Amino acid sequence: MEKTRLKINPKILVIDDEEGIRKLISAILTKEGYDVILAKDGYEGLDFYQKDFFDLVITDVKMPGIDGIEVLKRMKEYDENAEVIILTGHGNLSTAISAIKEDAYDFVPKPLDNLRVLTSAVEKGIKKRSLKLENSRLLKELKQTNNELSRKNKNYFEVLSFISHELRNALSIVSGFIAILLTGSLGELNEKQSEIMDKLVENIESINHLLVNYMNLSKIEKNELTVDKTELDVFIDVLKDVVDVIELQAKRNSLDIDLSWGGIPKGVKLVADASMLRIIFLNLLFNAIKYTKAGGKIAYGYKDCGDHYLFNVYNEGAGIPLEYKDKVFDKFMRINTNAHKGKSGSGLGLFTVKKLIEAHGGKIWVETEPNAWTNFLFELQKE
Among 64, 92, 113, which residue terminates a domain? Predict the structure, then answer.
């Protein structure tokens, strides 16, 4: 239980079965400006402590009923910020050390020949108690602020997910109308009109890709990622659809995907979430297309490593500056160099990829040579 200080003058509780000792300590500390409350045994001391606030407790070790160490333990259970000084005779030094191990603040030997030892211990104990209470207050405020931010953050991502979903539905309708126009069933399009339609399709695909990343971000931030694992063939169940989209995008950028460097054939099977793997390959291949130089190679492949597969997506182009190499998977990361400026994107693609791979128990990393090439590699268990 956390206790709050209500008085201006520090209040000290003194527990000792010897009346003379109680009165002596009271006289010393009252003269120093402290308010002092006296208790004749452990039971009375605990009763006082639970009914009022005290900046410090001073208790004897050996008392009838319950001893000082038991008083210390019970006070700590009731108030973890309690600060207790133990009074002990010279013969009880080992007992005092044991008490300190139980989180007593300090011990003062009896008889009280050196009063400065007592007043110094009291002064330091009160300061420590004050610091602990302030730390507890700040920690409590921090937790409250964090809870409030978490609540607002959750609301934000719920709205983001809803808007992204609605926008994707609207884009699907627009894409449908464009597809009808491109068939020529409503009239033949001239060359300029066809070019405009192709640009519209390209931009709709980019926006759709962006919205998918935002929807995944919402799930990641709300801890709602659900991995629906099934046995699948990577080419048939994942890459077949991905490659159709990627090859069209590469063609628009006058690029080719070079399968002579690898590729992933039929028969590469593992247990994974097919939809997540599509997002992983789409993001990595879109990223490769975006940063591949004119005439540069784009390739992807795999290696059978026994209990897992090693996949990679490679491209020749801007590469990644070494100072960004460890940051490329950070949320909203954008590389600020001349070679990377002007490239559209949310900074969420690689962040999403990393989270989806980790959700499968895998890992991803990047190898690169700046201004030359980039190779993203990731491992996934077969089962």
Answer: 113
Residue 78: which domain range? 11-113
Domain total in the chain: 2
Q: Alpha-carbon distance 281 to 6, whole Å?
A: 62
Helix (H) or strand (E) holding 191: helix 191-221
Beta-strand runs (E) in the chain: 11-15, 35-39, 56-60, 84-89, 106-110, 230-233, 269-272, 298-304, 308-316, 363-369, 373-381
Distance between CA atoms of residues 141 and 157, nearest Å: 24
Q: What is the pTM of this model?
A: 0.52
How many helices (DSSP H) and strands (DSSP E) are in the chain? 9, 11
Is residue 289 situated within a structural domain? yes
pLDDT tens-place string over residues 260-290: 777 899 999 999 988 889 889 988 998 898 8
Does 158 map to a domain? Answer: no
